[in-house]
From TrEMBL:
InterPro entries: 7tm6_olfct_rcpt. It is a multi-pass membrane protein. Belongs to the insect chemoreceptor superfamily. Heteromeric odorant receptor channel (TC 1.A.69) family. It comes from Xylocopa violacea (Violet carpenter bee). It is found in: Cell membrane. It holds the Pfam family 7tm_6. Keywords: Cell membrane, Membrane, Olfaction, Receptor, Sensory transduction, Transducer, Transmembrane, Transmembrane helix. This is Odorant receptor. Its main location: membrane. The chain crosses the membrane at residues 42-65, 77-93, 131-150, 194-217, 271-292.
Length: 365
């Protein structure tokens, strides 16, 4: 494989992961031994995200705990995503040295000689990884930009002297000082802007890095499958016993190496994925509470003493009961409500599709 093909294939396989992870200091470059600059960048971003994100947001929970809607907003918009970003950044930083052998294997797979068919398989997986890394980064950065722009305009339009202090910053939270003076307000919000973009990069990049490794691993298993299928021979004829033993030895070693690759990913990120699921579950639970409480307004209206008043006054309560038929909820793309019913439907559909795919594979084989 030429140097040009290697560089192009590797660049495609890495996508934006190399750039983003170098920016926050967690890229596991195998040839790098001095990590002081990377450590400084990671500690800087950790500090900014923590002190302008989860800390003021979490402290603010003590003041808004009796308002379920504000609590849900606090947890879902920035608090839990910020905590998630901090955990992802810390775990990726902690396992950076562990991933250096994995990245060396990643580079070696692109360097070693390969057939046109094998290069095409790797390129297909690399294109998928590149698409994921680029578009996940673009979409999340765009969403944060839109949110910050709308919040900045809302703050600009508000009455700075009479508005609640926690509503004067981009991500509402508690700060132990007066933010109403313009210079203080600008500096505080600037810190939150830096924290927001830093958290987005951390949140997205670690996920796309995992996707990159998994896609690369899938490509290597696909190549290995072709090797196994052609072990006894191909269209050109059968192989000798020595050739079969030699090829089989290589296949076994390669299989063990790929299993080691997958085990390293599992060991490094299994705890992270568990934490991510638990944190997302907390948000969905609060969204469910919001849905339930808003729906109960109709029952409360029915349980009022409407029968003790005249019919014209009693009719007024029908408006409340009618409106509660459309309870408050958070949706996925405005078409599906976050609820246990949605979760059960998605799980059942996924299991059905996986079963159908396995049956289809067995048929065509």
């Amino acid at each position: 494989m030429s140097r040009v093909d290697f560089d192009q294939g590797l660049k495609m396989g890495l996508g934006w992961n190399l750039r983003n992870m170098n920016l926050i200091g967690i890229w596991p470059e195998p040839s790098r031994t001095d990590e002081r600059c990377s450590n400084f960048k990671t500690l800087f971003y950790l500090t900014v995200i923590i002190f302008f994100g989860p800390v003021p947001q979490s402290m603010n929970l003590f003041f808004i705990w009796d308002d379920l809607e504000l609590v849900t907003e606090n947890l879902s918009i920035a608090n839990i995503p910020g905590i998630n970003a901090v955990i992802k950044l810390f775990i990726a930083w902690r396992h950076r040295e562990t991933f250096k052998p994995i990245m060396k294997s990643f580079y070696d797979d692109w360097r070693r000689p390969k057939t046109e068919e094998e290069r095409a398989m790797m390129s297909d997986r690399a294109k998928s990884a590149q698409f994921i890394s680029v578009w996940c980064s673009v979409l999340t950065l765009a969403m944060v930009t839109v949110y910050l722009s709308l919040r900045a305009f809302s703050i600009y339009q508000s009455d700075r002297l009479n508005e609640r202090q926690d509503r004067l910053i981009l991500y509402p939270g508690y700060v132990p000082y007066n933010v109403r003076p313009v210079p203080v307000l600008l500096l505080t919000n600037l810190g939150q802007v830096v924290a927001a973009y830093s958290a987005v990069i951390c949140y997205t990049t670690v996920d796309t890095f995992i996707a990159m490794l998994v896609m690369h691993l899938c490509g290597q298993f696909q190549i290995l499958r072709k090797k196994v299928q052609r072990l006894m021979g191909d269209k050109r004829g059968s192989r000798s016993a020595d050739e079969i033993r030699k090829e089989l030895t290589w296949i076994v070693k390669r299989h063990e190496h790929l299993n080691w690759f997958a085990t390293k990913i599992e060991d490094c990120f299994s705890v992270l994925l568990l934490i991510q699921i638990l944190l997302c579950t907390v948000v969905i639970c609060f969204q469910g509470f919001l849905f339930f409480n808003s729906k109960e307004i109709g029952n409360s209206a029915y349980e009022s003493n409407w029968f003790d008043v005249s019919p014209p006054e009693a009719k007024y309560i029908l408006f409340i009961m009618h409106r509660s038929n459309r309870p408050l909820s958070l949706t996925a793309g405005k078409f599906s409500i976050f609820s246990m019913e949605m979760f059960s439907t998605v799980r059942a559909t996924s299991q059905f599709n996986i079963t159908r795919f396995i049956i289809f594979q067995k048929i065509i084989q």
